[in-house]
Amino acid sequence: MTEIAVPERIAQEVDLVVTASNPFSTRYTKPGALRYRFHDQQAVEELLGCLVKGKANLIVGPHGTGKTTLLQSLLEVLNDTFPSVCILKLDGVYQGWRSRIRVAVDRLRRIFSALQSLPRESLLILDGVEQLGFISRQIILQSASVRRVTVLATSHRPMLGMQVVHQTTINSKLIRELLDQLLKGSSEEMNAKVEAWIANDDLDQILNLREFWFELYDLVQPDLIRGRL
Questions:
Q1: How far apart are CA 132 and CA 104, in angstroms?
Q2: In the prediction, which pLDDT does 9 show?
Q3: DSSP code of 119?
Q4: What is the pTM of this model?
């Protein structure tokens, strides 16, 4: 979800004034803007310690629980650990079987191109490896092994032949900390509106953090446009 600028002429005609940016827009909630929060530094070291060079490693977690955010947060240390790092996001939008085939072929082309260009002992990151079929996945992992390239992937579920090194989860404490970070510097009115909205929700029941940010975006955006927040 992105913010849409209201042209000045239209804003004047409908008496709209945008006075502040939406703290829940993707510029603030996208991976890299929000860093993944570990329980402590030991958890980071344990994850990196579980990462087996030359093997297939997997980060598992439900949709919207921070897998991509975790990858972005680890990039700096991974770049210091491996001679070269390549990250590929394996999503794709398609309509109909022809489009599905084109997207699948493009995924494989990008992966094998990366494998051929990466030097030995490098790291290939596949964000969303569940998008690959079983046979394609096994061929890729075998090719990476032959080239001595370590694979780190994300998936919604465990995958055969891949070692799970971390599982992402969300809870009310984490959501509360991220909310406080995003709302820092916001008006009292915005804070009150958000607090009133979440007061009736059990934050421990939220399963998809990304969708939660989208809902909060939609909650405050109309009032932001009208200058009420």
A1: 8
A2: 41
A3: P
A4: 0.79
